Amino acid sequence: MTATAFKEYKVWGLPSRIFHWVNFLSVICLVFFGILMMYKKELGIVSIEAKLALKEVHVIIGYVFATNLLLRIIWGFVGDKYARWRYILPGAGFIKNTRNYIRANSTGEQQQYLGHTPTGRLAITFIFILLIVLMSSGLIRAGTDIYYPPFGGYVTEYIAAPDTNPEDIIPYNTAGTDADKTKQLKSFKKPFGVVHSYAAYTLMFMIFLHVFFVIRAEVKQGGGLITAMFTGKKIFRHKPVDLDE
Ligand code: HEM
């Protein structure tokens, strides 16, 4: 490592930072309303109107979360250097870089990266997979559970009894629905609910690990990576490993 004076590097562009904080806030709200839904009985939320309202609020925040995530996925293909998937996913040379990174850190030489560290890439990739699973299963549940867009219209059309206008079908009410098709819908939507819940528990655990390791890296290696998510800039004393990539 070459010792130099402190130098500032522009790493995260505005779109990446906006994604990060919109994602952060929407996930916190989704977890909050998700937990309320899980413990609704214990919290005395028993009326159908209240249960429905909880789901509706969760789904509306879910749309903000999903739109933000879809934009970020596109940005990963067209955006600035460090926002690209090439700088996020564990690509070529990943095993070698991870070995070097872990070896260097265990000998006290703190390797610094402009983009994500090799272990950071692994964690972020896993978090993105969880977010995509939560978005997909959530949108399917929104359609099959409370007939919300983008799939709700197809669902009500499918379960409507022959003499019923699909638009008259309301959640938690079997009036106007075909009994057999409603039963089919129930077994179709169940696994998506299970996947959604387990992905949510795993994400909560990953958020805990993410915060822990970011603080640890900040304390041990410096570089201002927490501040960088606000300003976009990292500050290093030594040459970052991935500067010339
Ligand atoms: C980070 C993202 C998300 C997290 C952490 C999350 C979390 C949760 C949790 C903890 C539950 C309660 C599960 C249960 O009752 O067992 C839930 C239910 C639900 N979520 Fe999400 N969610 C997320 C995204 C979304 C999105 C994007 C949508 C749709 C737009 C959505 C739609 C739903 C629906 C409809 C339910 C109710 C399903 C049911 O009653 O079983 N979620 N979510």
Explain how this protein is built.
This protein is mainly α and 245 residues long. It has one domain: Up-down Bundle (Fumarate Reductase Cytochrome B subunit), CATH 1.20.950. The protein is built from seven helices and two strands, in the order βαααααααβ. The chain has helices at 14-38, 48-78, 94-106, 118-146, 152-159, 179-221, 225-231, and strands at 3-10, 233-238. Helix 1 (14-38) runs antiparallel to helix 2. The longest helix has 43 residues, at 179-221. The protein binds protoporphyrin IX containing FE. Residues 27, 30-31, 34, 37-38, 55, 58-59, 62-63, 65-66, 134-135, 138-139, 141-142, 145, 193, 196-197, 200, 203 line the site of protoporphyrin IX containing FE.
Keywords:
245 residues, mainly alpha, Fumarate Reductase Cytochrome B subunit, two-stranded antiparallel ribbon, 7 helices, 6% strand, binds protoporphyrin IX containing FE
